[in-house]
């Protein structure tokens, strides 16, 4: 569906994307994970054929965006980072006119709008203006709108940023259904749980580069341990702890507010820590996540 | 999976495509690269019609404006200035002299308003165009669609203006019917130029600059008096103003005094419209398709 080779995006002197290779296959959910400014959105916009590439090669749906932009966009759905709903129109009109931009007939867009409002659970707000909707509803409408042309490939740029947990889960549910229906998804996020939940495969981006690639479980297996022991200390008492507990795990990371011990067995490590008479304020044993992978690869957390 | 019927006209090689299937591509599609134009500007008109279907009352102002103007000049001004010399040297009432010029000026004002205020907010704040550019539509579709709407609206206003003029007994020649297409041309030229300007505006406060350009144009473009009142060097300057050409056309047509120079006036406005539309598309592409 998407094939990028040595893809580069420059804005003046600033290089946002610095030569990445990506391949997205039909029917999969593919993720771009990385902190703000990693180059995710620039990459997405190039794939969406709304931003010309600066260098490298890019094929979307087998076509070159520089030449066939309109033809590619006709088969894409795009959920931008910020809602771009038409605030001068109602919910229903937003869906209808968007279908018209794709050249669909009036009868088609009427039918499709009704169907999509059902899908996004917005039927009751059909004839209300968009401004009156809650954040979650607007996001759902944006996703519904991106589906008006029955896209083969759906691009979601941080689809759940700024939403409450309930709204996020509802959106995830909709995305699962789309995937089950055969739509290829490309998702960017700086929430590791989102990518872990939704994506079959992902790349981790940092500073315009791809730093790792694989399925969530592969990445965790490759770059982290099965479990993590988190130790929190009272302010000012964390100094020197990392060295003391280093031998209880394969690896130790020190963050400003806690020490992470990477180990196959977190409970055992915790016992050993207590045995050494180290007394954290609180401790937590959890499974490794993509956040740990990211931390390992870049030395930073995802959401600062 | 069903795909939206995309135009089969956006082929990779425009030249090759037009050679094999010339009938399926309009002249614009053949001239312009596919990424700029999908040939679907009409969808933008439809959007505007949707927006205004809830605000149709604004069209009432289209009748009120000429009514107030003409009343003021008939009842008020007409008392002071009884007769002036018309385009063909014939005497005419002041209100008959000024009415066609006001029609052109009102077409200008409507077009400038539509293409600056309305476009600015869609462009900067509502991100309407970003959303549209994610569809097959290109910047030229947007430019033509938005300018087209300003022209349509200008046409409706001009029709109302003409009706009010007729009501005042100011339409004396059948040529006056041509005031309508002239008003469309004036709207086209000013909305195209206005839209280019709108892409340069950074904040609503800068609309004062637009007023700064439109107001003198309205007052100085021989709207209220003939060109001959200016000293000669100033006459050339006034003749550069686009509204002057609109006024020349409407004033002559209203009384049926035709002149070959009218073709020149029309060509000036047409050229302005084409240049404006082209640069609008360029600017939108530059700012939105980064």
UniProtKB/TrEMBL annotation, chain A:
Protein topology in the membrane: Peripheral membrane protein
A GO MF annotation of the entry reads:
ATP binding
Q: What is this protein called?
A: ATP-binding cassette domain-containing protein
Query: What range(s) does the ABC transporter domain occupy?
Result: 2-232
PROSITE patterns per the record? ABC_TRANSPORTER_1, ABC_TRANSPORTER_2
Nuclease recorded as keyword: no
Q: Source species, please? A: Prauserella alba
Q: Which family does it belong to?
A: Belongs to the ABC transporter superfamily.
Q: Which UniProt keywords apply?
A: Antibiotic resistance, ATP-binding, Nucleotide-binding, Transport
Q: What is its main location?
A: membrane
* Cellular compartment(s): Cell membrane
TrEMBL record, chain B:
Entries under InterPro entries matching the protein: ABC2_TM (IPR013525), ABC2_TM_bact-type (IPR047817), ABC_2_transport (IPR000412), Nod_factor_ABC_transporter (IPR051784)
Q: Which residues form the ABC transmembrane type-2 domain?
A: 57-287
State the family named in the UniProt similarity comment for this chain: Belongs to the ABC-2 integral membrane protein family.
> Where does it reside?
Cell membrane; Membrane
**What is the name listed in the Swiss-Prot or TrEMBL entry for this protein?**
Transport permease protein
List the PANTHER family: NODULATION PROTEIN J
> Where would you find the membrane-spanning parts of this chain?
55-77, 97-121, 142-169, 175-197, 209-227, 262-281
Q: How does it sit in the membrane?
A: Multi-pass membrane protein
Please report a single Pfam family linked to this protein.
Answer: ABC2_membrane
Which stretches of sequence are listed as region Disordered? 1-22
PROSITE patterns associated with the record: ABC_TM2
Keyword line: Antibiotic resistance, Cell membrane, Membrane, Transmembrane, Transmembrane helix, Transport
